[in-house]
Design a protein that fits this description.
By secondary structure, the chain is α/β, with parallel strands linked by helices. The protein has 6 helices and 7 strands; from the N terminus they run H-E-H-E-E-H-H-E-E-E-E-H-H. The strands form 2 sheets. A 5-stranded mixed sheet has the order 4-1-5-6-7, with helices on one face. Strand 5 and strand 6 form a beta hairpin. Helix 3 packs across helix 5. The chain is elongated.
């Protein structure tokens, strides 16, 4: 009976060690993200209205732009993720989407502003892209909006890839002498010109 209890304790230790190791590896994998994307919470909470005569289309810009941004930024930053909790990374990219529809011209007007901050809160660069996309609001509106945001993000990525300051920063990362801030703090940083 005494031997069975020791085997049980050994088994329990092994399971606990495996669980701790798995948790540590998951935390390391989460920290491997080079850039975190911050989309203001109001872009999820407050829907945007697009109108076509008697058709009203409400949508959450945050929900539509989030997957587009994450996919588009991979060539510039490698692994990216959405800012959540107290996560920190070498760079935090703040995204501000805009959308307008002109029913007479049957044109979607999209704009994305991206501000890239170092993980310590210093503004590295700002980028803006405005695009137009011909389409009908009453035919797959969410897809039309997504295509418009994809075109805007393609232009933002092109600007980022051409920016030598951003490329140099991403090659070096945040110096060890600087403290990384939680990614959500970019929302309260003062506007920089």
């Amino acid at each position: 009976r005494f031997k069975e209890m020791n085997i049980g304790k050994s088994w329990l230790r092994l399971v606990l060690m495996m669980a701790l190791t798995t948790g540590t590896l998951a935390a390391q994998a989460a920290d491997a993200v080079r850039a975190l994307v911050f989309i203001p919470p109001q872009e999820y909470a407050h829907e945007t209205l697009l109108r076509l005569h008697f058709i009203n289309y409400w949508f959450s810009q945050g929900e539509v732009v989030e997957p587009v941004v994450l996919q588009s930024l991979k060539p510039v930053f490698g692994e990216t993720a959405i800012c959540s909790g107290n996560r920190a990374a070498d760079a935090v990219v703040m995204i501000q989407p805009y959308m307008f529809y002109n029913p007479y011209m049957t044109t979607f007007y999209g704009k994305i502003e991206a501000r890239v901050f170092s993980g310590s809160g210093k503004l590295i660069a700002s980028y803006k892209a405005k695009v137009e996309h011909s389409g009908y609001l009453d035919v797959l509106p969410r897809e039309q909006i997504k295509v418009t945001y994809q075109a805007a993000m393609s232009e933002v990525v092109r600007q980022m890839q051409a920016d030598s300051v951003l490329q140099a920063f991403m090659a070096q990362g945040v110096p060890d002498s600087e403290t990384r801030m939680p990614c959500g703090m970019v929302a309260i940083l003062p506007p920089q010109k």
